[in-house]
Amino acid sequence: MSSTDPPLPAPLKRTSSISAASETSQTAHDYIASQLSLEAEAREALPYQFDTCTKPLGPLRQTVYACLTCTPPPASKYQQFTPAGVCYSCSISCHGEHNLVELFTKRDFECDCGSTRLSTSGTPCTLQLNAATGQKGGVTGEKAREGNRYNQNFEGKFCGCGEEYDPEKEKGTMFQCLGLGHVQDGGCGEDWWHPECLMGLPRTRHEEVNVEANGALETVKEEGEDEEKKSAETNGSTEEHAAIEDPPPPPGFPAEDDFDHLICYKCVDAYPWIKQYAGTPGFLPAVPADGSSAQAINGHAANHIEPAAETASVDDSKKRKADDEPEASQESNKKAKPDTSVPHANGATTADASANGIHIADAPIQPASVPVTSEDAPAQPKHLSLSPATPTKITLFTKEDFRDHLCRCASCFPRLKPHRQLLEEEEVYEPPVSESSHNGDDAGSATGSLLSRGEAALSSMDRVRAIEGVMAYNHVRDVLKPFLKSYADRGEAVGAEDINAFFAKLRGDEAAMREAAAAAGASNGGVDGDGRREQGGY
Known about the structure:
Elements: H1 12-24, H2 28-45, E1 60-67, H3 88-93, E2 100-109, E3 157-158, E4 163-164, E5 175-176, E6 192-193, H4 195-198, H5 215-235, H6 238-245, E7 261-263, H7 265-270, E8 287-288, H8 294-320, H9 326-335, H10 338-341, H11 350-355, E9 394-398, H12 413-416, H13 420-423, H14 435-439, H15 450-459, H16 463-490, H17 496-507, H18 510-522
Antiparallel strand pairs: 1-2, 3-4, 5-6, 7-9, 8-9
Protein name: UBR-type domain-containing protein
Keywords: Metal-binding, Zinc, Zinc-finger
GO molecular function, one term: ubiquitin protein ligase activity
């Protein structure tokens, strides 16, 4: 190349500009796809309709939320506090911008939104029908249900330790108590518990629990630690990080798959008769709540259960094999022979009287005795075979079929009757599923999205207005296309300020146009360091 030849253009700047823009920009297609994905996530997080308050339905077992914005927790226990809970729909439609705490399901609860419990906050219920206007919204000062029960969960606190639940910091799994008793009864009111707190252990030191009662447990733990170290050396710190994120339950705590419900020590102490079921069919062995060894409690219980179980086993064996018992068989056989051995009042039999030549008037023949089998014998009430209740604080863990093993005799049923959760599995109210959740499961589908709703709204418009809207859209498209093309030809990304200036000019908004132009001028100076939020790729 000679010195007189013009220098070749350097495309590096343009390539660099496009490359830099592509890292932080997206095309219109990518933007729509991302919006559809976000809408799909929203449908998954909020799958139910939220246009109807459950208060008119009365008390239900339903998902309840505490609004800490409308009912701030008290600064001290001496400060007056009026707890309140709202239903799923009101948590979104009426308190969507507030600080909410999900309490999950609560039994026999009526929504407090729009009631006197939230009167100081001034937040109305937008979903209930206003009696004054005949329309939804603006409902305040409604009478709150007196039967609602509240606990510390409505202050954002959980467990026996009273900690505030932070989903970003909380590690491990918390478990909800079946809730035999309310706080007023000495129970917990369906509180959520840490495994360590159920066992009376400090949360930060559950791995240091004394395992002298089970020496093999410590050995297994050491072997597990060695395996984790070897695995970490091979695969990095992934497993170690997972262990930190989700720590194992403390030793002695049942595996999650082994139980279906739990009854915390507070509710057990409120109704101590339930202690007798520990370790019986439908119940796991008792877990002490004072940090002591579970072996001591269950060993003490076994000393009482084994004789009862042994007696029951013998009794059951007799009932199952009543025909094989010699004495009972012979006795029944004797009573089954009226022709030769029918007894009379004086103890003589017809056979003896005939042998001695004594005439005895015919007496009515007694009905033959039928051997008693296990099916015919009355069942022994189960509570008679239960062990005495231990004085130790314990937590009970139940299996799925525990209700089938509760004694329901005339003496025990009055204890069960106030607790419906012990008699049958409860139904949880769920709002109707939204149509968009039915039709928009696919993240890439436009069904139920804002885009499809816009198209649906356009199709339902008045014909004249629809035509005007389409014409306006075509006008914007015809003007916007060359505007974006000029940036594409120069290899530059389109910034937010450029778009603002374009639409300000299109609207004829001089003030907005000058402001956007000034902002765009201040940002000039190359791709690197211009500080613009780019939106390129057109």
